[in-house]
Amino acid sequence: MEIGKILKDVPAPLQSKCVAIETASNYSACLVSQTEDTLDRKSLLCLTIGVGRLHDPPDCLGLAELLAGMVAMQTDSTIGLTGSVRVADDRTEFSYKITSSDSVSKVLKQLIKSITTPEFSANRIKYLIKKEKYKQQLSSLNWLQRCSGNSNHPYNRMVQPSQRTVELFQIEELCDRLAEFHKRHFNSNCRRRMALEDGRSTDELVSLTAATKFDFSTPTDSRVRSKGQHPLEGSYTALGGTKIRGKRMNLGGIFIVFPLPDQTDLHKKSPDLLVKYLFGRDGLGSLKEYLRTKLGVQLDSASLTDTGCIDFDTFCIALHCDETTKYTVETEDLIISAVFRYLAMIRSQAQHFEQLHNEVRLDRRAHFLPEVDDWSAFLKLKRLPLVNDEFNIATRLHRYEIADVLSARHLLSSYSAEEMNGFLACLTVDQCRVFVSDLDWHTEHVCLFSSPDGRLCCQPDGIAPYNLEKLSENLLALCRAEWPTASCQIDTVFTWPRPRPFVCKNFSLKPRDLTNQPNGPRKIKRQSTLDGSSSSTNLWFRQDDRFQTELAYISVDLLPPVDVVRLALASSLQISILANLFSEELADLKMQAVEADLELSVSRSCNGIQVCCSGHSEPLPALLLAALGRIAELRVPLNYFNQERIGNLRAQKFSLQPCSDLSQIANRLDLAGFLHIQRDYQSLDTQTLDREVEINPSSFIAHHFSNPAHATPLERENWPSRPELYAEILALGNLTAEQVISLVDSITAVLPPLSRRPADTFRLDPFFMRCSERLLPRGSHHFIRLNFATNRSIELTSRTTRLKKGDAALTKSVCGLLLQMPTAISGGLKKQASKYDDFFFRRFWHNCCLWLLKEALTLCTKLPDCTKRDLRWDTVIGCNANCIVIELVSESHPVAIETTIELVIACVGKTVDSITKEQLAGMKSRVQQLATRLFTAPNLNRQHELYWRHITCGDYDFSWDTHSLDTNVKTILDRISKKDLYNYWKKWLKQGSQDRRVLSVHKINRQQFTFNAQDDYYATYQGIEVRSLDDFKQNLQDCIPMQTASLKDTFNS
């Protein structure tokens, strides 16, 4: 098939790409390539033909259904799959879910072959007639609308009596009629549209489609035309403002229907969605809440109905009464009056329409661009790719241009008052038809309409199908009245919904300042002020040049002076309590952010409190400033930091795994490799390590963060020092440099403690703002004893349970080993590789060696199964040091458990010494995949996480942020030989090595091992016990970060 036009960069949902193709033969396709590896790899195919029930000849109804059934049977029997087929008024839909992408071409070619050259088999026709495959059951509302409408309208011809259907014909004659019908409609130039979603690239999908051949005869236009007239309007139809009551009929609800002109061309404005949104909202002041609580009526929906593409549209408000509600004419009138008073309220709030449009536009974009977690439910057959939409994919293929099939009614443009007012003008009582059930015919049975014979299942012969009841003058007057009307009690009930702040109004991409940006974010040097000072902020900025989304991330790390943080546990606990307090105080602001599809979070960082916001770039600065303003004005007295709050902060769930203890102890000691982990302060269950902490005026630090302008002179006198604050700021995404510089000025104004100092005496670098990281002594082995009682709750496999007598965990103890490796030291690095001996190479040499050692553990064959099952081996990649954390749970004493762990470490060394070239190559391949996964950002969120981690821990190294990362890592791995890896193990992990740095944590079960027994275990144990974390910390060596000249230049810029 010759492709006439390819439309690239068609708007598509996240994690997918889309192209549209058009041909001269009235054939178009929307091709969606899914790009997320974790998705269900099934391919989805939907092909539609512009021929439906309304194309049936009057003397042989059901031909379209019968022919579609034959095509489906012929296709299914050939390809071995069962698809679905549906015939609507103006089209026929064929849909398939294909488990293997390789089968897509076969399915498509066979389906098209069946459509163009069907086999009119007598046996198949007999089968379809016998199984009544040519029939459909439609709603009684559908039937009643057609009966009461314009009989000359093509849409209403299906309910006209005395018409012949296919079952009245002989098989031979039916074969002739089918062939004639196929030649006239299926094999003509009718509209053919296809949607295909597959895991292959868009280029491959275009090639697949181009290889598919269509054979068409003389072009004809077979589309149904109504000349813009609505089937409910015209002569001999029910007038507006009328109830249409089905005789002896249960519709299952009350339906208020408004005829509309064709809304297809309004898909970028879609004013009906605003009305739908207002009718769908619940809560105080809403129509939904009033009907449910006062009248016992459920408001099901208020939306356009899917009537295909026949030059008209219909807006329907559907309601039904609860079983406890007595159904009467008075009930109907109360419902009708409530609906039209609500519409009157809507019309009176024109000043809020633009804000409402922005909120609806945001919600529709969220449906079109869902989170990845929702993606598996997003691309569903016949709902591709839209959730909760009025039109399925088949209707969309016929209603909209092929390039708009996915985005129509979801990617809305700016507000149009003209379109909104025009739509509301159609929703008046004088134009509506109210379809209601017979008052004496309320049973559990809901009537159905059978196609193609046009009969209702329970309609007696010779009885008129409905009665017309004109609405009373009083009811009409009430429905027409302006809002509010003093005499109408309902008007006091309805209120306009609360506007959502921070709703994005502009989704456009900002001009790109840099086409080739350096690795990572760049530090922006801000101009000094007139008085020669500069603010206490580091500003990092990078535009989104990879993902091209309208999203942005702005994060602020608020840091008190480093000498304050050095006050150790007292200051750290205050910072943690303040972070919790700020998060609680901003709860309503966080909820408002969620309503605007944004995210706001406040949490503890390595050395301070971080405030992060993300989402659409336009409202982010206002959200961030609002959050920081709240923090700045919060008054925090000294007595807020009482022992109860400190106890609540430290009383975390007790865990049988020591990982939480190790990370906590490492953070308390400022160990290099752990400072990038968020600090926590759970109880360590030992008085010798956890001394009573007292917050006194000399250690009070809240004034550094919250410095209210209305603070009293006495409060200011009690502050131990002048309020002082520093900030790291990262702005990433759809922003400009001018924007973020202006934002920093606003942040400085909102937070007065971001003081200004003389520029020549002030330098912001990681050594000035943060605690120094520390190293364990070279060749040392220290250990910590933690005793726990088994009458507490213990967390096992991510669930918390109360230990009972007889539980296996009652007899368990734990040992964890932390081994530290400074990255500034060359751990087995080849001398001949010195030309690669830069910051990136040295760091990733350490990383790759650690990952390879963990891979070697999986090859150890001499370990007991129970040890392999219960052993946990984690690598912690830090800034100035890496760590290995090994932990094991057992019924043995922790000293014996540690002996087992040492045997595991020795086994890893033996395995490395004996691995084959093939095994080493497999290990390297897996490590390369791991490194790429850890340091490559598949989306803007992950990119922000990587940048922010390297900023908040004072690392500032972004050499890994390059398109050549995979090649660079491969170069490093290629230079690591088996001998290099063994030497690395020997230097850093082997027991007795002079370079090994070890900290052990023994968690002893008091019930299993008494204190006397413990003395026996430690009598010959080789290790120095740590009895005070603070004293031990004072004796640790400060870690001098490894820097290149370029990094030093960055700090001094």
TrEMBL record:
Known Gene3D superfamilies for this protein? Metalloenzyme, LuxS/M16 peptidase-like
Task: Please give one Gene Ontology molecular function term for this protein.
Answer: metal ion binding
Give a Pfam family name.
Answer: Peptidase_M16_M
Segments forming domain Peptidase M16 middle/third? 392-642
Region described as Disordered: spans on this chain = 513-535
Q: Keywords on this record?
A: Metal-binding
Q: Which SUPFAM superfamilies match?
A: LuxS/MPP-like metallohydrolase
Q: Which domain of life is it from?
A: Eukaryota
- The protein's name in its UniProt record: Peptidase M16 middle/third domain-containing protein
